[in-house]
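Go through this fold for my students:
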Amino acid sequence: MTDFKFVIPLSLQMLEESNSSKQYVVTNVFTAWEISNNIKDVQASLRQDGTEFILKQKCFDTLYSVLVNFSSVDGEIQRHSWDLMVKAMGKLVSEVGHIIDGDLTGSSKAKWLNIIKMTTFIACKLIDAMENKYNNTSDILVTGKGRKKPPKDTDQGHWEEDRNNMLVHLYTLIQYPLQRLWEPPVVEDDFVILIGDSCYKMLESPNMALVRTKDTRTSMFQIIGTLVKKFNHGMACSLKILQLLRTYEHMVSPAAQGVILLIQTFGDKYVLPEIIKEISRVSRDDMVKDTSGLRNFTQFLVEVSNNCPQMIVPSLSLLITFLDEEVYSLRSCVLSIMGSVVLNLLKGDNLDPKSKDLRDQCLEHLEDHIHDVHALMRSKVLQIWNDLIREKAVPLSRQHDVLKLVLGRLWDKSSLVRKNAIQLLTAFVNSNPFAAKLPLEELESQCALELKKLQELSPNIDIDSLGKEEACADENTSPRAAWIAIVPDVIKAVQEVLEDSMECDEEEDTLDEEIDLSNAVKEVAEALSSNKLYRAVKLLQEVFEKFSGAEVLNYNPEEHSSKTFEAVAEEDLTEKDINFLVVLERIFLSAKEMEKAESPPEEKDEMTDETNEKNEELKSEINKQKMLVAYFKDSVKFAKLIQQGLPIMCQLLGSKHVSDVMEAISFFVTAFEFGVLDAMTGVRKMLMLVWSKEQEVKAAVVEAYRRLYINSDNHNERTQALQIVENLSSLIVGATMGERTSLEEIVSQFVSSGDITKQCITLLWERFTKTLPDTTDEEAHTALIILAMCANAEQSIILSNFDVLTASGLGEQGEQDFALVKETCHALLRVAVVKPKTDAPTAPNRLDRDHEIFKRLSKILIQGLTNLKDRQYSPMALKAVSVIYALAEHPDLICEEVIQEMYQILENPSQDEGSPPDNTSDNNFSVPAGVLTRFCVVLGHVAVCQLVHLDIYVFSELKRRNNLKEEMEVEKKRKKTRKSKKSSASDVSKGSQETDLDEEMGLVGAVADDTEAEYIRYVCETEIINSDNLLGTIKPMIWTLCTNPGKYKNTELQAASSLTLAKYMMVSSKVCEENLQLLFTILERSNEDVVRANLVIALGDLYFRFPNELEPWTPRFYARLRDSSSKVRQNTLTVLTHLVLNDMVKVKRHISDIAYCICDEDPHISGLAGLFFHELAKKGNTLYNVLPDMISRLSDPDVGVKEESFRRIIGEVLALIQKDKHWENLVEKLCHRFQATINVRQWRDIAYCLAQLEFNEKCIKKLSENFVCYADKLHEPEVYDLFMEIISNVQKIIKPEVKSVVEELEKRIVDSHEKGVEDENIARKAGNAKLKTTNSKTVRKSATSRRGKKSKSGSSESESEDEDTRQQLHPVHRSKKENLRQSSRVSHSNTTNVQQCSNDSEENEEEEKELPSDTSEEKENSKPSPRHPLIVSNSQPSRRSKRSHNQRKSWLQS
């Protein structure tokens, strides 16, 4: 059966139907049982007949039946069929080459064509069937949490391997010139589509995105590429890939890799543009609906553009239209493609003009979308710019503009955008084209120096145009480019000269009367060359008049296009204007060509070779200097822009978003390395972040300082240690106390990690003792500070060098340098025991009182008392006293001796060269104020240290001894218990009683602890500040200094004495209670800011020590939040923050005072207040509970808070309320508060509060239920607008089921507003008419009733004034005003009766004047103004008012 023609069908079933007698038709479709028998015959036929077996009817029908009944056929039969076809395709591929190359007759050609088509058809359809089997969608699960992975099929691996073999056979087959078998020699499309569809079918498998199928993907796209290249399969391929991208999410990467393979291997230039064209034709609505397909399209295009950007460029015009779409992913895709094109194709300076234009267009689009409306889009664009900057793909002329835009994004509301903006700013610094260092001051000085050199070389140079000249140097080399550059100015000159018909007043703008045409044209050309455009136009105008009709002045509109000029001109051009412009262009270009062609012969003869060389050298030097100056100008501009971003970056270090902080740290590290001015500010601010709760932030800070100050490229250990010491010393110089504390934590980590080596410690000791040559005092101080920091991690650093520290720090040098003594004491405190252990077997080791350290400290304290030149005495004295109490065995005895010696100096002062003049001495004491100040400082600190010594060390030692005593007693009793023998029942009972010994001893220990604590409290109360005690003896002096600020005016003395008094009060509650009045008086009346600021901090400690005694004084403490000094306000707010958050002070009444600090002019105070409320919001419902009272007080007109300040406060505080239940309750409470308001301002305030809440369904219902509370306030425009804003916001987020409630509420609000406005207008008109009538009657009666009626006229005037006021009020409040006026009339008419009443009735009368009255309202007043039925009056009398009204009626009747 070889005389048939096999036609590839569109579907399997079509093979069972015949359209012609020669077409092959399947006659038998076998069942599954028959197939299992026939398949063996087919295999035998293949072995016997080779590739021609397929021509047998039974063989083909059997294989066809396998395809038709594939799902019901046994798996083994499927496998045998597949193996058979793989062998058949292998034999066909091996034979077909020889057949095609040989001589084929018509019958032979038809036979082999049928063999190829039938074998390929069965093979391809079998591939499809097997793919369906192994990639059933029900078996492909997305694995993840809660889902099981599909069972692993062992046949899957065999199938993938066999599939690759079949693909290799297909690829080999289509490499042959198969078209020779067709007549005409063109391969039919059905055959091409058959093979292509099999490949596309395999691509549908999700496994195609896996790495293991890379070879399969490559084989398939090699087949597709061959079909595209040899058989015009490009259009079908592009459509099929597009369909796959839209349908399958896994197709992005395989499709992109396949298209890249088609481009790079097969040189295809058709598929990708066609895909882009089809994507651009997709309906925008369909894209919005099909989000997965849209995502696949964009990812596919981006991946292709990253690998083959040259193929995307021709289609950019189609993609640019996507930049106007609302879907941000489309914009992101296009901009990513543009970034890839610029990065891979348009980078560098050697670009042709067309490429430069394309690059500029792409960069302009990227610039525009830095301000895109979508945050993810802005973030993506910044990432693209980051890549471009790092690869130096952005021209220098554009970098400054981009940098300005990036600085603006540092304020972006999206943290992701800010993160990428900081990264881009860091990339700008890292990849800057100017220098490895960017110190602004040095760059400016160098720029000025080079500019001065340039001016010396060329005095007439235009400095401002240097950068522009460099940028346009290449463009302005040709005459045509030079003409284009001046065309806009020429057009402007032509229009102004011709329109104004300006006369040539100046002789230089006119031509000589005898001049010829050529010389006249030369003068016009010279004027154009020297940029005298108006002169050139005027001269040309005169040339037209004198030489009209000359050839050089001809203009033909058909030959000379005016489009160039019209595109540049701002106004429409006339034909005369165009004529002038064409002639001017002709003259300019001709003159330039003549200049370029030849030089004047006279100059050639005169110029020598030496002159030419000098001119060339000078010109070259000027050009070099120009470039150098332009370079420095750009460097300065760049450095200034980076400088502008530093304050913003410092603020981002305090951001609540970790990403902001991390990127800001990275930026400051880079900026510091590049020497950016003021980068040190950010580096120092980073120190505080070491206390962050986020571990990654802490780690980043430590790593940043390790990179800046520890890491070194020097391999010499000594040199490296010296560099580390110098780096840390530079960081300590100028550091504040807070920065030093933070640095101490970082240094401790460096010591623990081994970054600060023993060589560094040795070098620090050498610096401190000045054994290192050329060591200054400042370097010795910083070395000691660093040693103290290191000792925080390793105490042996100080303990092993105790004698060295004492000799160098407290010796002769220390007696003259109090700062050195202070740092020495600070280092000594590192080895002190902070809190002794109560379970230790021995007491902490303390030094004897006669130790060398205490002798030297006592000497320095006593002798330095009168050395007023050194201002570091007071801080040194505080540290010295602390060291004595931390290390000495009997510190109180040492300090007692020191105080006695000091007091003797006070009694017998000896003026030395260090004391100030006599006018600084106080009147009552014959000692300098500075000496007395220092004495007070020592007294106060000794009192506090004595308290701490008793409360911690002595108490802990007593507990330790008690514990040891108890343990010894327990041990004794246990030994006795072991020796005793139980000989009777009574002995057994005694033994059972002894088992409770531990519990009894534990109880005794607790009682002992209470006894010891009570004893310590008793000593503090009665013995430390006792009249018999040394400190108590000096207390009257302190009290005298505090109570006489007018006599003792020295500021430092006032501060020290008041602070000493506060420290005395810390010791004893009795002393505290006695002096609280004095302390608060000083706090309120002192004129010195430092005194008040110090006392605020001292009061914070007193609140912790004696909260009950301080509680009545809390309002006066809160009053310091309104102090005139910002420092006092800041300290007060800081102390209150600690007290409130630690539950030491209640905030109910005074929360509004703290809230008002949010609007403080000092940004630090404002930020601290915001932080307070942020922390308060974390304490359960505390903030919610005090919020209503805060709103009430802030909106009170008597408080005087401005409306804009109120809104700022409320907006910040309400944002901290997060619970839905709180929102709902606040809505109800605020609605009810409307009823208690008395003016319009309060209405607006409460409405604004409501507008700031986040409304849910229940909130809306609450607002609707309480409508009557605010209905009568809606006539006020701003109140109405705020309620409508609430409705508008709710409609965006509310669910459909609540929509009817919102619409009903909106209708009620609008109706009430309109009715209220209408009523208000009617009432105003009625009031105005009544006022006019009253005035006219008063004028007519004034002539006849002046006598004896002055009181009545006065009354009518007051009533008219009241009427004016009443007309300005809402009807509700107008009725209140009316009632008050009527009650006053009633009381006035009954004055006689009032005088005859008792005292009780007089009191009732006073109440009566304040209450509304309805008795005579109907008689004396006109009709009340119309009212809206929904508006409910809030002026209903209370029970008390009704009762007093009834009493008044009965009293009047009597």
